[in-house]
Amino acid sequence: MARFGEFELIRESMVAVVNEMRANVIHASFSSIIYEGHDFSCALLTRDGKLLAQSLDDNPIHIFAVPHSAAEILRRYDSDIHDGDAFLHNDPYTGGTHLNDILLLQPVFVDGELLAFAAVRSHWGDVGGMTPGSISGRATEIYQEGVRIPPTRIASGGSLHGELMELLFANMRGATERRGDFQTMMGAAAKAAEHLRRLSDRFGARTLQEATDTLIANADTVMRQRIRGCPKGVYCTEGYVESNGHTDEPLVARLRMTVHEDWIDVDFWDASPQTPGPTNVGPAMAINSAGTILKAFLDPDTPINHGSFQPIRVQAPEGTFINARPPVACAGSVEVKTLLDSLIAGALGQAVPSKMVGDLKGTGNHISIAGDAATRSGRRFYLFYEYPAGGTAATQQGDGSHATRTYTEGDFNSIGSAEVIESEMPLIVEQLAIRQDSHGNGRFRGGCGMRRDIRVLEAGAVLSVLSDRNTIPPYGVAGAGAGLGNRFVVLRDGDVVPASPIPGKIAAFPLQPGDMVRMETAGGGGWGEPTERDPAVVAADVAVGFTSKDFARERFGVVMTDSGGVDERATLRRRQELQETRVMLPIVVADEDLYQGARRIFEISPAAAKLLRVRDGALCEIINPYGPSLRGWARVVAHALDGVLHLGPFGRAVLRCEAGSRFELRCIGRAAS
Known about the structure:
Elements: H1 4-28, H2 32-35, E1 40-46, E2 51-54, H3 60-63, H4 66-77, E3 86-89, E4 101-110, E5 113-123, E6 152-156, E7 159-160, H5 162-169, H6 175-203, H7 205-228, E8 233-241, E9 251-259, E10 264-271, H8 284-298, E11 312-315, H9 333-351, E12 366-375, E13 378-386, H10 418-424, E14 427-434, E15 450-456, E16 462-466, E17 487-492, E18 495-497, E19 505-510, E20 516-520, H11 535-544, H12 549-556, H13 568-580, E21 584-589, E22 595-596, E23 599-604, H14 606-612, E24 619-623, E25 630-636, E26 645-647, H15 649-655, E27 662-667
Parallel strand pairs: 10-11, 21-26, 23-25
Antiparallel strand pairs: 1-2, 1-5, 3-4, 3-6, 4-5, 6-7, 8-9, 9-10, 12-13, 12-16, 14-15, 15-20, 16-19, 17-18, 17-20, 21-27, 22-23, 24-25, 24-27
Helix pairs in contact: 1-6, 6-7, 8-9
């Protein structure tokens, strides 16, 4: 049995092994998206496929899905796993994320006994499919997204199955980079195996196994203790993915999260059916989201392993877009996963108000520009791929951050290097800036998104985009406002060129020399009452350009003088005016919530519509002082009772309200600009 000192040393040694794996991948990879963007993750798993160790820098969407993949590999190969084997996997329907994320799983044996697994999951820039980069906002089936790899043995007895790997590379663009990245993954896993064998030699295989079992048991105990500190009850949220890439019809998911004595039931009890577009995910994403959010919110400080997730039970209806079945496309796994993140964070914020947080940029923001570049050696395929960062959300402790990564994304690069882009591709980065006024307003504001302009220099390039939160922006909490939505456009001679009928969903749009691709990312949602924000802090944001004078007046009620100071009297009047002109409506009990397709409908009278200055079909939200806003679309009807809102059981559960409670109804007028 491991003594306490040995136990601590083993635990830290496991994390050190993962950190060295990461360093090896960064130093040896061929693709800039890996060595610059850090779009990869590493982990160690127990011999039965449980997550044992990962780095704090690893991406949760990569790592929390690995046990699903490992379970499928163990199920398929069972006792037929031997020293020197290696396996690949990327199938979303059996634990993968999207096809670009390739998992390498290598078993580690000591004296003929399976000790553990070393895992590396890397984003390969292209895995085939209908568009360069393989990620398209307009795909209709998974066959258009590239090579789908079920659990597959690609090495036996230390010998690589070369013919199989050549078959895979033959179906991918930029095969030289793919081969290089694959060899790097193999090398990192082999080095991890060496270190694990040394640890086994030092402590003994039995002691090492006992220590890993204890690590997982301890994490389980800690998480259960944290859950006991949460108020018991049922907490509900509702949210949308704004489209499937082909129509403007949104996809809805509804959550009931029940906090029990020492475990949490995360029940996505209702969701839109799986869709013929890329905004679907496989079964790993729901537990992935639950693990990410509950670990980050309730137990952020202890080591990350499988024990933290054992007190979490997740249900996601099969055949919906949050647990899809073949053959639908799944490239938008990040877009769907971030919706699930938002739902769980919103529910947990109701249970533990000190953890309440506004919504994030809410999407992967996959952008790719690909083509052939003339070089001395001929023509070669190039791929610019980026996932530009946005604003993070505000909390009751302070403002969000500008254009940075979030706790759900690991050590991803926030902003790709202009020098790398311009030295490797026929592109020029003409502007990089904070996107003014993109933050959600509140007592604490969200962070601003970013704006990046990239000029195309040569013919033959194509643009693909897959993002969300373009028309349904990140929500605020506790009375705060939404952030500004994402926006991706092509400028030709200064004019916007229609690249797609659906915002944020573009597939291989042909670019011309001189075209400008403009990326504008979403800002984070705010926290708290906007008119309670310190006017001096608003003025400071105006002074550095985060906030315009008009926004300060319209959203915070702060009136600036010509010299940049605060006009205190005018500010007092403006804030009183903002409060007096709010449309506050009482809730009337309805037997059912009203929907049109996936859209929640708020029936309002013509008089209420006039006060709100909205037309039929406008996106609105009920401001929730206890959590995220409740979104819906206005339906202006003559027979609607003037000055009331009818809500069914689930709508009232989201707001945690009773009949007669008064809530502000607000038009979301900043979904896109």
